[in-house]
């Protein structure tokens, strides 16, 4: 595989994404000036559904992240998988995901939002399960799909409720919903959707498991974009649903718990990618918490941290991919002293980790000051945020120092920086984190300010800056670094302690496992009860249902009985055939041998065919006759396999079902004879068969011309049935 | 089943039945017959070979794999549908180029093509299932 030539088109998706990014950049001035470009195409006009899009500050910032980081990731993926035969499918799925994500963050119509939301779920399922030959990847993908799709259903219900309550299907036209009676239900549904998507406790476990995905996928979905869709939803709906006791009560505790779980368990990991996954949980929890607090300062902090986090986390994920490619492992216990061999990687990781640790002059520092300023009112929250941030400092130290310092170690005997395609993205992302920190007004004017305006429904007050004077936030920052350093110095002991404690702690994932086990149990019970695998029981159910329907129609509808005079008109031949059929039925019922019974059944069918011939339905008679012949051949073949010992048993229930259906069908046919036939159809076909369809055989003309579409469906079913039957029989042979 | 009479009779009967099935199919347009019953009739011919000389012989006689025949049949029916769909904008609309060009009433056009599709689908599906069933039973023995 390694000598395969990298295809030349592999950078096209990245170029397309970069062009989209440029397009969004060109819209920045309009949005900064307070405008919101919209686009609305009619979709289902009868239901008032439009494909409506609207770019406000929040949507534009997300669109820039999705397309900008998307371009870098697609470039990176094109190099990462450049000789893999799956490159095409990866780039295609990643691009599809990017479009879906772009739809989510720009949609203004509720249904449009839902459709794109579900599209991100499905594409991310494909991406997490990209290594679909590995069982673990498939299981992780399924788990991510089950949880996020369940959240998607909650979102659908929530969006419909919102649309009906507000009387508008535009996000921009929802207005304040906090006082409506449906509010608690709406908020509950939206929160479930957002928590499932953004991996908030108690749904958080799917995110670390989703690290089964290839590195570029994790960098894109699980840091910068998809997992932020839940945060986006909460931010988007904050003006409509936010700032109530219920909002605070749901978002703040869940966010805080997720933040602390993520920060603590990040320490436990030795796989750098897994560690990043857990720190992502920390970041998502922090954003949820800040949106839950909901004050203007908290919203500024939330959107600021969102930007910081997207930049450094995507950069770090990609850098871990560089370490893995260059040194042969992403487990920091296998790595050491790579700084000299991998200078570019070292610089990138150092820059991104410094932003993560919130060191000045990085944008991360600015964001951390904002976070502290926003949570100062509540001692418990302040404490939680300080602890979580200190743990982040320790993790940043672990990523930036362990692989690059210490004694030389690496599985690859000659470690080195990977090719330029793998370097560009991480470098750009890391440098942006530094650049925005040095020039915070850029981030403020273009991204953070407009985002804040959309979420808080008011312009940003005050300015972002590296220096806010000697205040409590700065003191807390210093305390965070000190605490983080302390944790870092005791890292190995803490890690081993956590590892030892892990088996004794309750698993949050347990509820998911129990739920899935229950679901499979119910499915198995239903299958066992209904799918017996015995043809007789299927036939019994089918015939019983049919009998109930026939008798139901007979007993509830008006019936006109045929006159007995018609019976007297029967000829000798009619009676003779009836006698043959009745005699055959008697043989079927009395026979002790299957073969005799099958042959006698053939006699019944042939008798019916004779009746068709007598009354002019030659086509039907021919078909009936050949079907009878083939049925005897088939049944003869199948019956040979059945046990021959002993008599055929008599089963009362089967007899009852057979009698009910048989008598019901007879009565129904008699009732039909007594009803005058509406000749509209037969007259039409008689009149038009030759002039319109150039055929004199009306039956055949109906089948292949007038009702050709039905026949097409029927022969398709015949082919499908044959394929299925042959597959089952072949499988049985093996 | 090793019956000399059946084997000998098969050699005579099978070509006759297959030819007859085609006649039934072709006359179906104006007289009793048609693709469905024609296909069934042809299938009985191959069922006869399978009974007399085994499925291997029947498969050889059929020349194509049963499911390929069924698939070609479905393709014929679809092609017939698209013929009318593309030429007249109505899927499955009957097309009679020969009739329009010369006024001849020979059954040639999209509808007989559709009926041929039915014939092949029935032949392929019935023989396919029959052979598979036969093979499965033989493997068991």
UniProtKB/TrEMBL annotation, chain A:
<keyword id="KW-0813">Transport</keyword>
<feature type="transmembrane region" description="Helical">
    <location>
        <begin position="379"/>
        <end position="401"/>
    </location>
</feature>
<feature type="transmembrane region" description="Helical">
    <location>
        <begin position="541"/>
        <end position="561"/>
    </location>
</feature>
<feature type="transmembrane region" description="Helical">
    <location>
        <begin position="57"/>
        <end position="78"/>
    </location>
</feature>
<feature type="domain" description="MrpA C-terminal/MbhD">
    <location>
        <begin position="580"/>
        <end position="643"/>
    </location>
</feature>
<dbReference type="Pfam" id="PF00662">
    <property type="entry name" value="Proton_antipo_N"/>
</dbReference>
<dbReference type="Pfam" id="PF00361">
    <property type="entry name" value="Proton_antipo_M"/>
</dbReference>
<feature type="domain" description="MrpA C-terminal/MbhE">
    <location>
        <begin position="652"/>
        <end position="731"/>
    </location>
</feature>
<keyword id="KW-0050">Antiport</keyword>
<feature type="domain" description="NADH:quinone oxidoreductase/Mrp antiporter transmembrane">
    <location>
        <begin position="107"/>
        <end position="389"/>
    </location>
</feature>
<feature type="transmembrane region" description="Helical">
    <location>
        <begin position="621"/>
        <end position="641"/>
    </location>
</feature>
<feature type="transmembrane region" description="Helical">
    <location>
        <begin position="274"/>
        <end position="293"/>
    </location>
</feature>
<feature type="transmembrane region" description="Helical">
    <location>
        <begin position="567"/>
        <end position="588"/>
    </location>
</feature>
<dbReference type="InterPro" id="IPR001516">
    <property type="entry name" value="Proton_antipo_N"/>
</dbReference>
<feature type="transmembrane region" description="Helical">
    <location>
        <begin position="247"/>
        <end position="267"/>
    </location>
</feature>
<feature type="transmembrane region" description="Helical">
    <location>
        <begin position="470"/>
        <end position="491"/>
    </location>
</feature>
<feature type="transmembrane region" description="Helical">
    <location>
        <begin position="711"/>
        <end position="729"/>
    </location>
</feature>
<feature type="transmembrane region" description="Helical">
    <location>
        <begin position="142"/>
        <end position="164"/>
    </location>
</feature>
<keyword id="KW-1133">Transmembrane helix</keyword>
<dbReference type="GO" id="GO:0005886">
    <property type="term" value="C:plasma membrane"/>
</dbReference>
<dbReference type="GO" id="GO:0006811">
    <property type="term" value="P:monoatomic ion transport"/>
</dbReference>
<dbReference type="InterPro" id="IPR050616">
    <property type="entry name" value="CPA3_Na-H_Antiporter_A"/>
</dbReference>
TrEMBL record, chain B:
<keyword id="KW-0812">Transmembrane</keyword>
<dbReference type="InterPro" id="IPR050622">
    <property type="entry name" value="CPA3_antiporter_subunitB"/>
</dbReference>
<feature type="transmembrane region" description="Helical">
    <location>
        <begin position="64"/>
        <end position="86"/>
    </location>
</feature>
<dbReference type="GO" id="GO:0005886">
    <property type="term" value="C:plasma membrane"/>
</dbReference>
<keyword id="KW-1003">Cell membrane</keyword>
<feature type="transmembrane region" description="Helical">
    <location>
        <begin position="106"/>
        <end position="133"/>
    </location>
</feature>
<dbReference type="Pfam" id="PF04039">
    <property type="entry name" value="MnhB"/>
</dbReference>
<feature type="transmembrane region" description="Helical">
    <location>
        <begin position="35"/>
        <end position="52"/>
    </location>
</feature>
<dbReference type="InterPro" id="IPR007182">
    <property type="entry name" value="MnhB"/>
</dbReference>
<comment type="similarity">
    <text>Belongs to the CPA3 antiporters (TC 2.A.63) subunit B family.</text>
</comment>
<feature type="domain" description="Na+/H+ antiporter MnhB subunit-related protein">
    <location>
        <begin position="5"/>
        <end position="127"/>
    </location>
</feature>
<protein>
    <submittedName>
        <fullName>Multicomponent Na+:H+ antiporter subunit B</fullName>
    </submittedName>
</protein>
<keyword id="KW-0472">Membrane</keyword>
<feature type="transmembrane region" description="Helical">
    <location>
        <begin position="12"/>
        <end position="29"/>
    </location>
</feature>
<keyword id="KW-1133">Transmembrane helix</keyword>
């Amino acid at each position: 595989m390694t000598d395969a030539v990298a295809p030349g088109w592999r950078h096209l998706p990245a170029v397309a994404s970069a062009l989209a990014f440029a397009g969004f950049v060109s819209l920045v001035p309009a949005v900064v000036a307070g405008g919101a470009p919209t686009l609305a195409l009619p979709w289902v006009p009868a239901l008032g559904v439009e494909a409506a899009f609207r770019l406000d500050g929040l949507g534009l910032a997300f669109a820039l992240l999705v397309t900008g980081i998307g371009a870098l990731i697609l470039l990176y993926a094109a190099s990462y998988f450049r000789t893999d035969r799956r490159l095409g499918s990866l780039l295609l799925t990643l691009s599809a995901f990017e479009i879906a994500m772009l739809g989510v963050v720009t949609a203004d119509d509720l249904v449009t939002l839902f459709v794109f939301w579900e599209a991100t779920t499905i594409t991310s399922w494909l991406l997490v399960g990209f290594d679909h030959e590995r069982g673990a990847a498939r299981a992780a993908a399924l788990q991510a799909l089950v949880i996020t799709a369940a959240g998607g259903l909650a979102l659908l219900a929530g969006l419909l409720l919102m649309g009906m309550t507000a009387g508008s299907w535009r996000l921009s036209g929802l207005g304040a919903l906090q006082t409506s009676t449906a509010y608690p239900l709406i908020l509950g549904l939206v929160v479930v959707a957002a928590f499932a998507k953004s991996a908030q406790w108690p749904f958080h476990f799917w995110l670390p498991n989703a690290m089964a995905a290839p590195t570029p996928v994790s960098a894109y979905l699980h840091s910068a974009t998809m997992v932020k869709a839940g945060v986006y939803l909460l931010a988007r709906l904050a003006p409509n649903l936010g700032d109530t006791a219920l909002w605070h009560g749901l978002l703040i505790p869940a966010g805080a718990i997720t933040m602390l779980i993520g920060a603590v368990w990040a320490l436990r990991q030795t796989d750098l990618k897994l560690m990043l996954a857990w720190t992502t949980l920390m970041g998502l929890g922090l954003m949820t918490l800040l949106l839950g607090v909901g004050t203007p300062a908290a919203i500024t902090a939330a959107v600021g941290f969102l930007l910081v986090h997207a930049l450094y986390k995507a950069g770090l994920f990609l850098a871990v991919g560089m370490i893995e490619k260059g040194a042969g492992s992403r487990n920091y216990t296998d790595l050491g002293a790579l700084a000299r061999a991998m200078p570019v990687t070292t610089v990138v990781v150092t820059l991104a980790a410094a932003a993560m640790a919130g060191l000045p002059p990085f944008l991360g520092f600015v964001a951390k000051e904002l976070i502290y300023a926003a949570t100062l009112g509540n001692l418990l929250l302040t404490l939680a945020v300080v602890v979580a941030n200190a743990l982040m400092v320790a993790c940043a130290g672990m990523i930036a120092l362990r692989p690059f310092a210490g004694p030389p170690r690496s599985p690859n005997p000659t470690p080195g920086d990977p090719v330029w395609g793998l370097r560009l993205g991480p470098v750009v992302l890391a440098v942006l984190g530094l650049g925005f920190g040095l020039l915070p007004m850029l981030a403020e004017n273009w991204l953070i300010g407009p985002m804040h305006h959309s979420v808080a429904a008011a312009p940003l007050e005050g300015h972002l800056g590296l220096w806010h004077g000697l205040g409590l936030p700065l003191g807390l920052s210093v305390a965070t670094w000190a605490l983080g350093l302390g944790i870092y110095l005791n890292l190995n002991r803490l890690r081993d302690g956590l590892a030892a404690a892990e088996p004794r702690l309750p698993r949050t994932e347990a509820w998911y496992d129990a739920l899935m086990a229950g679901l499979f149990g119910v499915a198995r019970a239903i299958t066992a009860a209904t799918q017996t695998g015995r043809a007789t029981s299927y036939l019994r159910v089918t015939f019983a249902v049919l009998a109930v329907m026939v008798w139901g129609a007979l007993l509830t509808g008006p019936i006109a009985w045929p006159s007995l005079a018609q019976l007297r008109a029967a000829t000798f031949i009619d009676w003779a055939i009836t006698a043959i059929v009745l005699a055959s039925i008697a043989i079927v019922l009395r026979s002790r041998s299957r073969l005799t019974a099958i042959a006698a059944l053939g006699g019944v069918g042939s008798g019916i065919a004779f009746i068709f011939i007598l009354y002019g339905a030659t086509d039907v008679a021919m078909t009936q006759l050949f079907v009878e012949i083939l049925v005897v051949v088939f049944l003869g073949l199948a019956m040979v396999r059945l046990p021959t010992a002993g008599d055929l048993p008599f089963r009362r229930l089967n007899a009852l079902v057979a009698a009910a259906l048989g008598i019901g069908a007879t009565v129904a046919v008699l009732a039909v004879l007594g009803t005058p036939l509406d000749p509209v159809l037969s007259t039409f076909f008689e009149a038009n068969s030759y002039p319109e369809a150039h055929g004199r055989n009306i039956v055949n003309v109906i089948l292949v011309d007038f009702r050709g579409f039905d026949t097409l469906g029927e022969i398709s079913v015949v082919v499908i049935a044959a394929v299925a039957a042959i597959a089952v029989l072949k499988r049985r042979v093996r | 089943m090793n019956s000399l009479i059946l084997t000998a009779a098969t050699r005579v009967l099978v070509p006759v039945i297959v030819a007859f099935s085609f006649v039934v199919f072709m006359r179906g347009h104006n007289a009793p017959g048609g693709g469905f019953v024609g296909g069934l009739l042809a299938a009985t011919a191959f069922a006869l070979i399978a009974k007399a000389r085994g499925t291997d012989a029947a498969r050889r006689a059929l020349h194509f794999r049963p499911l390929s025949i069924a698939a070609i049949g479905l393709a014929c029916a679809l092609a017939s549908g698209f013929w009318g769909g593309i030429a007249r904008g109505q899927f499955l609309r009957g097309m009679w180029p020969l009739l329009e060009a010369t006024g001849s009433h020979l059954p040639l056009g999209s509808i007989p093509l559709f009926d041929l599709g039915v014939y092949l689908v029935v032949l392929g599906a019935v023989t396919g299932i029959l052979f598979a069933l036969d093979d499965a039973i033989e493997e068991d023995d």
